[in-house]
Amino acid sequence: MSELLKGKRGLVMGVANDRSIAWGIAKALHEAGAELAFTYQGEAFGKRLEPLAASVGSDFMVDVDVTDDASLDAAFEQLGARWPTIDFVVHAIAFSDKSELTGRILNTSRDNFRNSLDISCYSFLDVARRAHPLMVENGGTLLTLTYDGSHRVVPNYNVMGVAKAALESATRYLANDLGPDGIRVNAVSPGPMKTLAGAAIGGARKTYKHTDTNAPLRSNATLEAVGGTAVYLVSDAGAFTTGEIIHVDGGYHVLGMPQYENL
After folding, report:
1. Would you say the pTM of this structure is higher than 0.85?
2. Annotation-wise, does 181 bind a ligand?
């Protein structure tokens, strides 16, 4: 796969550390030959990202707050100054107050609902709007991350399930809007993974163990597997895949009940 993305370049948003799904994707894209730029939010995340970006040959990092229009505008102006066109954007950004990712969705506050939907869903639309001018000449790919809690109840996932459902709907609408310009829009849906974001969900360890022992492949996904799926979607091999929610979860999403031995 070392030549599959040769000549392609794009932006990866949301790398928190070397266990992030976004990092698994970035590493796979780099190994397939792509040139990468990165965004981060805040000095602490910037310090974590710097050596990772350097390890894949990138010196382009920009601090972005996706709730701030001026911050996003500045980031894409810098990106456009570096690269007049891009081939992909990976949007791996989501947030909800950790204290509301336990217990009942009934107790979701208005402020956290707004904030969760704004950062986890609206930001994808906001990013797409700014990426569009950099892709309209040659086409490209917009890629985001979702989770099965978008349409099935997962304990403690709460408002994030609502946000991911909205994100998946936005993916489909964007795919239709941008298709005439040759821009594909897809979402990857991994199963539970041991990431910083995943750890914020109440009972994350139990959820991880449950899916690991019940998925048809008897395993949760790896960063490499998610990264490989992203490479396919970004590459010319994915030229006619758009509007899709692609599961990379060991098949867990097909189950109606746990495996017989676990009932």
Report:
1. yes
2. no
HEC readout, the chain: CCCCCCCCEEEEECCCCCCCHHHHHHHHHHHCCCEEEEEECCHHHHHHHHHHHHHCCCCCEEECCCCCHHHHHHHHHHHHHHCCCCCEEEECCCCCCHHHCCCCHHHCCHHHHHHHHHHHHHHHHHHHHHHHHHHCCCCEEEEEECCHHHCCCCCCCCHHHHHHHHHHHHHHHHHHHHHHHCEEEEEEEECCCCCCCHHHCCCHHHHHHHHHHHCCCCCCCCHHHHHHHHHHHHCHHHCCCCCCEEEECCCHHHCCCCCHHHC
Is the predicted pLDDT of residue 195 greater than 80, yes or no?
no
6 is in an annotated binding site: no
Q: Which position among 157, 208, 232, 252 bears the catalytic label?
A: 157
Which CATH superfamily groups domain 9-262?
NAD(P)-binding Rossmann-like Domain (3.40.50.720)
Active site residue 40: no
20 annotated among ligand-binding-site residues = yes
**Choice among 147, 208, 232, 252 that is catalytic:** 147
259 marked as binding residue = no
